[in-house]
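Q&A log
Question type: sequence-to-structure
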Amino acid sequence: MKAIGLVLLICLLPLSVDADDAVPAEIDHLLRSIGSSDCTFIRNGKRYDSGAAEEHLRMKYRNGKRYAPTAEKFIERLASNSYLSKKPYYIECNGEKTPSADWLTEVLISYSKD
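Response status: OK
Response body:
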């Protein structure tokens, strides 16, 4: 009986570790939308491809998720501007430059309608 309990504990242990690192569905959708876009991410005046943008914002979320309990707060507090310089982030798609907060809010609205 003790062996069965130990096996169950071992099987469940990785699930609890993964749960702490889980990204809520709405935020994950926002991050994937950036990464899968053909857009350019502009941060502190430098241009980054969509994969680098997704990676950067995932890092910011991992380090600051306590400040972003919802997708709206993620956009407002982590994905809109540089923490250090306070300069806004932009996303440029098809030659049109948009503040990242506006772009991500539109993605979130579309996601919420589905």
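Response note: Residues 26-113 form one domain.
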